[in-house]
Amino acid sequence: PQIFQAFVRSVGIYPVGSLVRLKSGRLAVVIEQNEKSLLVPKVKVFFSTKSGLHIEREVVNLAAVHCSDAIAARESREDWDFKDLDELWREQ
What are the pLDDT digits (tens) for 2-18? Predict the structure, then answer.
């Protein structure tokens, strides 16, 4: 259990580069872990599943007090045909 907990703390529940769907229906890439809570990382939103269109890229700190969005699920990279996912989480 201690080794597993150390692993989760170092990698995170949503590792950097993970594709996630937010409750708002937007897709985002995890760009930074939150040391206090692994459930609320910083993400970069870039796509709306509701409209099926790319949207303006925006960094969202899911741990921020004023943030009303949250991760609804992880998404499989293979299910989406995005060519620039790795670039999204690298650029800050």
Answer: 887 777 766 678 888 89
Closest by CA position to 84, among listed 58, 54, 61:
54
Place of tokens 């303006």: 56
Whole-number Å distance between alpha carbons of 31 and 91? 9
Candidates 31, 23, 50; CA nearest to 90 is 31
Which region holds residue 12: left if phi is over 0, alpha if psi is between -120 and 50, else beta? left
Task: For residue 65, give the H/E element and its range.
Answer: none
Asked whether the beta carbons of 75 and 21 are under 8 A apart, the reply is yes
